[in-house]
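Internal tracking record. Fields below are filled automatically when a chain is submitted to the structure queue. Please do not edit lines marked as system-generated. If the sequence contains nonstandard residues, flag them in the REMARKS field before resubmitting.
Queue: standard
Priority: normal
Entity type: single polypeptide chain
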Amino acid sequence: MSIHELTPAQLKRIRHFIEDEWVAEADGDEDIQATETNLKRLLAEIETPTELHWCAMMFNWDTECETLRPLVRHPLCDRGTALGVFWLGQPSWHYGRSASELSEDAQTVRALLEEIEEQFCANAYAQSTIRLNPADMDGQDFTADTRTQTVWDRPIPPVMFEPTYGASPIRPEL
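SYSTEM-GENERATED OUTPUT FOLLOWS
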């Protein structure tokens, strides 16, 4: 089995994560405590950087982005995964205006992006087995918006534009 192959159990966990099956409800409302417990349990079962990577890359950004914080803090979080989450979070939009101009939800995303950036620049993501090029993520250039932006509240460091080392994993069929 190659470094980026996924077992059936891993594919099931990825599907479980991206389809929010770990979110608990009681009387039609989310049960926050049970949801947090379920997420911790799910993340504790993650076996490889590749499995964590696909949970993060396939995450639905229309839901609570705070869900990504434990993923980027996970001991198996690879530099490629952290970089991918950073660019999926649209840093050119969030860094192109002051924090006071952002909605509460956008401030939460910006705080997540800042945390990833700081950890990335400090080399806190020790593993680099997953290649990720922000200028070519699934055929899309996530850095394109930065070339036309002239005003920055917080400039994006040059290292965040560089591809990470490693092999490119193939997107799993779920």
